[in-house]
């Protein structure tokens, strides 16, 4: 039977682990609009994800978070940090964390970057030249070469030019795929991991869909389960929740968070439990319409009970899901509801 989001059948699943090394503190207005008075600051992680194909014994990373040694950022990043006032904390670089799971950079066949912003680029110099770099359509023309060839670049050119850089094309003629409206490619060729074309925030922004469990006879696994990696399609869960098809039961949530009954409705800028709390501001996009289209498609995945949506800066994960070296393959449908509304606690400051 055809999947409602046109996810093709697959013969394999991948293991996904979340790698958590970063915290960023910044004003909400930098990434969200309109203002919600009860919510002034964002405390965000910037995740990297290990995708491990256990049968093919192939491992890739999706994004690298932030690098630990800020001094090696290009001048454009230093300038941005000085002007923006973002506070950053990075405890470890990704290779240090991989080591805790008995892995090393040589084990990683490719790093897929959702986009070119410094909070996703990590430190590519710590990976061997044999690790391929995978980017979205238009990336090379728009963002390479890096610094110092291009003064304003957030990429360090010496780190990038030692790698083979593969720019994905989603126009693959008769073999082209579309999943939930996103043009897609089947990365391993067996339906276990798809890269999705999700532009708007930047040129060539990539998202991904991983099949993490194949259906079996157990009650929890009557259908395949998935994890959707949203990158920076948007930066906060309140940009795609709630929706008409996934409304907020505000009284139940108020009871859970011990707030007055109508609190989460009153906090909502439109007093509406069927539209998202926030929008992505135009200054966070290269193409506002494309960004809005990508967010609308993301909502469809979020409303599907077989898919767990995780965006790159999703603080809701912390304390709710396991981190590397454990996997998140065993996420439970019954726990998805609590996970999806965990961001509401951000509005409760001062109550
Ligand atoms: Zn980001």
From TrEMBL:
InterPro entries noted in UniProt: MBL_superfamily_lactonases, Metallo-B-lactamas, RibonucZ/Hydroxyglut_hydro
Keywords tagged on the record: Hydrolase, Metal-binding, Zinc
GO terms for MF: hydrolase activity; metal ion binding
One Pfam family it belongs to: Lactamase_B
CDD domains membership: metallo-hydrolase-like_MBL-fold (cd07730)
Domain of life: Eukaryota
Family designation: Belongs to the metallo-beta-lactamase superfamily.
Protein name as annotated: Metallo-beta-lactamase superfamily protein
């Amino acid at each position: 039977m055809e999947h409602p989001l046109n996810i093709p059948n697959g013969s394999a699943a991948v293991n996904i682990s979340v790698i958590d090394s970063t915290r960023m503190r910044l004003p909400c207005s930098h990434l969200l609009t309109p203002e919600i008075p009860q919510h002034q600051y964002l405390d965000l992680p910037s995740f990297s994800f290990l995708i491990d194909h256990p049968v093919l014994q192939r491992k890739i990373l999706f994004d690298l978070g932030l690098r630990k040694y800020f001094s090696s950022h290009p001048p454009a990043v230093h300038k941005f940090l000085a002007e923006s006032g973002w506070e950053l904390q990075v405890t470890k670089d990704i290779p240090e964390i991989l080591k805790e799971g008995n892995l090393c950079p040589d084990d990683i066949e490719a790093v897929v970057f959702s986009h070119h912003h410094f909070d996703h680029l990590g430190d590519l110099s710590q990976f061997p030249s044999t690790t391929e770099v995978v980017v979205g359509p238009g990336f090379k023309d728009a963002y390479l070469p890096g610094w110092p060839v291009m003064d304003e670049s957030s990429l360090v050119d010496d780190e990038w030019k030692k790698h083979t850089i593969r720019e994905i094309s989603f126009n693959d003629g008769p073999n082209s795929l579309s999943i939930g409206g996103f043009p897609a490619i089947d990365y391993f060729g067996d339906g276990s991991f798809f890269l999705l074309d999700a532009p708007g925030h930047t040129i060539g922004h990539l998202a991904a869909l991983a099949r993490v469990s194949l259906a079996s006879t157990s009650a929890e696994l009557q259908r395949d389960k998935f994890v959707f990696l949203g990158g920076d399609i948007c930066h906060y869960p309140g940009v795609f929740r709630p929706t008409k098809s996934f409304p907020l039961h505000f009284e139940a949530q108020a009871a859970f968070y011990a707030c007055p009954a109508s609190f989460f409705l009153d906090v909502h800028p439109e007093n509406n439990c069927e539209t998202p709390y926030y929008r992505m501001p135009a200054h966070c996009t290269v193409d506002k319409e494309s960004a809005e289209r990508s967010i609308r498609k993301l909502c469809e995945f979020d409303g599907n009970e077989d898919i767990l949506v995780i965006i790159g800066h999703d603080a809701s994960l912390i304390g709710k899901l396991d981190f590397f070296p454990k996997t998140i393959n065993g996420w439970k449908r019954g726990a998805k509801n609590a996970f999806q509304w965990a961001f509401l606690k951000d509005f409760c400051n001062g109550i």
